[in-house]
């Protein structure tokens, strides 16, 4: 889907300066991630491809950037009172990791539906894990109740200016390493990453295409952009599990910013996502999760047109051994 920007005047006020400030703030926790030229992709697909290796960040994904920027921006009182979040995936893990380093109490709210293995992994980070209700929505509601009753600060996984600015630091690093980049591709879910990339990349004066890839199995942002307002979608299991989750019916920032900054959103099926994971494994000898490899799969399967100089953000590496085994057995490269 090509996005025709409906509101050319962007109402939210996150600036490139906010992203530079985020970069300074998180530097003690998040070093510049490697950006490598992909010989294989450049040869196989006929233009220059670079991979931004976010999967090697502490806590295994780019989410630490936003989590660190938000927690470091809290007042001393807020830090003393503790933080809470309702993300079960990479964001919850990053919040727990940063809070632990800073000696801030963190409570991760999850529903009874979250598998024990995932809950255990969260507990191992030193955070307190609270099981409530039977859906992600229940966990979210409880999280905001904790804020009211106990004074914790809710750290929203994407719809927060500090989180968006933190994720945007990836854009500054990309411009530093490949100043003449013309196409940036990354997995799109709640839109914190693309909102931040948009501010960082599109206010830098060079024409550039920002592309989001989402899973057919639950593309809430894509459906919302099509509807012109936030909507909910039905979700099914996908290899790109980090791309699932709604955008929030009261979305404040990311919906509008994705509408404004993102040029295209492409939906991918499981075969394409698997193809991306398999390609990264075979040709780059790296193991990444489906959400990270989705952009590679999209290029490999001709789902999006390549530019002259492309950067694909490999966003994370949280993937279980069983998934990798299935991938090797089931899907042709
Ligand atoms: C969260 C996440 C994304 C998508 O980021 P949003 O800000 O939610 O759009 C992509 N890849 C991975 C690995 C993630 O954890």
Please tell me about this protein's structure:
The structure is a single chain. With 333 residues, this protein is of the alpha/beta class. It has helices at residues 16-26, 39-45, 63-72, 76-81, 90-102, 116-124, 136-150, 161-177, 192-202, 220-227, 254-261, 270-284, 290-300, 321-330, and strands at 35-37, 48-53, 83-85, 106-110, 128-131, 153-154, 183-187, 209-215, 264-268, 309-314. It contains 14 helices and ten strands. The strands form two sheets. Strands 1-2-10-7-8-9 form a six-stranded mixed sheet, with helices on both faces. Helix 5 links the parallel strand 3 (83-85) and strand 4. It starts with 15 loop residues before the first helix and ends with a helix. The structure holds pyridoxal-5'-phosphate (PLP). Pyridoxal-5'-phosphate is lined by residues 61, 63, 89-90, 158, 187-194, 242-243, 289, 291-292, 315-316.
Supply the key terms:
333 residues, alpha/beta, six-stranded mixed beta sheet, four-stranded parallel beta sheet, 10 strands, binds pyridoxal-5'-phosphate
Low-confidence blocks of residues: none
| Distance linking N and C termini | 26 Å
Bound molecules: pyridoxal-5'-phosphate
Spatial strand arrangement across the major sheet: 1-2-10-7-8-9
- Indicate the radius of gyration in whole angstroms: 19 Å
Q: Which whole number gives the mean pLDDT? A: 93
Number of strands: 10
How much of the sequence is in beta strands?
A: 5-15%
- What is the count of DSSP helices, taking H or I runs of 4+ residues? 14
Structural class: alpha/beta
Q: Specify the oligomeric state.
A: single chain
Biggest sheet features: 6 strands, mixed
The succession of helices and strands, N to C, reads HEHEHHEHEHEHEHEHEHHEHHEH
Q: Percent range for helical residues?
A: 40-55%
Approximate shape? globular
């Amino acid at each position: 889907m090509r996005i025709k920007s409906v509101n050319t005047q962007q109402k939210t006020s996150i600036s490139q300066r906010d992203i530079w400030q985020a970069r300074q703030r998180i530097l003690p926790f998040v070093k510049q991630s490697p950006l490598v030229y992909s010989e294989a992709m450049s040869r196989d697909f006929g233009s220059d491809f670079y991979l931004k290796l976010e999967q090697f960040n502490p806590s295994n994904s780019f989410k630490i950037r936003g989590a660190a920027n938000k927690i470091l921006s809290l007042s001393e009182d807020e830090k003393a009172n503790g933080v809470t979040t309702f993300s079960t995936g990479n964001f919850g893990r990053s919040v727990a990791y940063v809070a632990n380093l800073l000696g801030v109490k963190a409570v991760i709210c999850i529903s009874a539906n979250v598998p024990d293995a995932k809950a255990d992994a969260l507990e191992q980070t030193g955070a307190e894990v609270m099981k409530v209700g039977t859906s992600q929505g229940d966990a979210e509601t409880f999280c905001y109740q904790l804020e009211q009753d106990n004074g914790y600060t809710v750290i929203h996984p994407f719809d927060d200016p500090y989180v968006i600015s933190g994720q945007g630091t990836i854009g500054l690093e990309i411009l530093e390493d490949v100043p003449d980049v013309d196409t940036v591709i990354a997995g799109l879910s709640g839109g914190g990453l693309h909102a931040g990339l948009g501010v960082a990349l599109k206010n830098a004066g060079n024409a550039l295409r920002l592309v989001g890839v989402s899973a057919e199995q639950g593309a809430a942002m894509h459906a919302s952009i099509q509807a012109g307002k936030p909507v909910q979608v039905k979700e099914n299991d996908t290899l790109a599990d980090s791309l699932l989750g709604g955008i929030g019916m009261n979305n404040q920032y990311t919906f509008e910013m994705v509408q404004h900054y993102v040029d295209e959103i492409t939906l991918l099926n499981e075969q394409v996502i698997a193809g991306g994971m398999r390609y990264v494994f075979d040709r780059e000898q790296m193991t990444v999760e489906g959400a990270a490899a989705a952009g590679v799969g999209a290029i490999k399967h001709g789902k999006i047109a390549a530019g002259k100089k492309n950067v694909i953000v490999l966003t994370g590496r949280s993937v279980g051994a069983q998934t990798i085994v299935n991938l090797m057995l089931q899907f042709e490269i």
